[in-house]
Amino acid sequence: MEDHVIMIYVFAAPSEGSIPMNSGEEFYVIETDQGDGWTRVRRRANSEEGFVPTTYIRCSAYSAV
Q1: Percent of the chain residues past pLDDT 90, beyond the cut
Q2: Backbone dihedral region of 45: left (phi > 0), alpha (psi from -120 to 50 degrees) or beta?
Q3: Number of domains in the chain
């Protein structure tokens, strides 16, 4: 089961490899923060992948049905 996260801030994705996000958007964690402040995620809506600032996300535990 992949970790599910919710974005708590807007992020414009100014650099290559990052993806833009809106507050409240939901993502799956692909790779956890390795100490550099970035988490690799996959967008639930369209499977787009990229890096987002770790401090901009909140983990959300839920039960998959």
Answers
A1: 75
A2: alpha
A3: 1
CATH classification at residue 28: 2.30.30.40
User: What pLDDT digit, counting tens, does each position of 32-47 carry?
Assistant: 999 999 999 999 889 8
State the Cα–Cα distance between residues 1 and 23, nearest whole angstrom.
23
Q: Which domain holds residue 42?
A: 4-59
Which residues lie across from 49 on neighbouring strands? 42
Question: What strand order describes the sheet that includes 4-7?
Answer: 49-53, 38-43, 26-31, 4-7, 57-59
Q: Determine, yes or no, domain membership for 64.
A: no
CA distance 40 to 42: 7
With contact defined as beta carbons under 8 Å apart, do 53 and 28 qualify? no
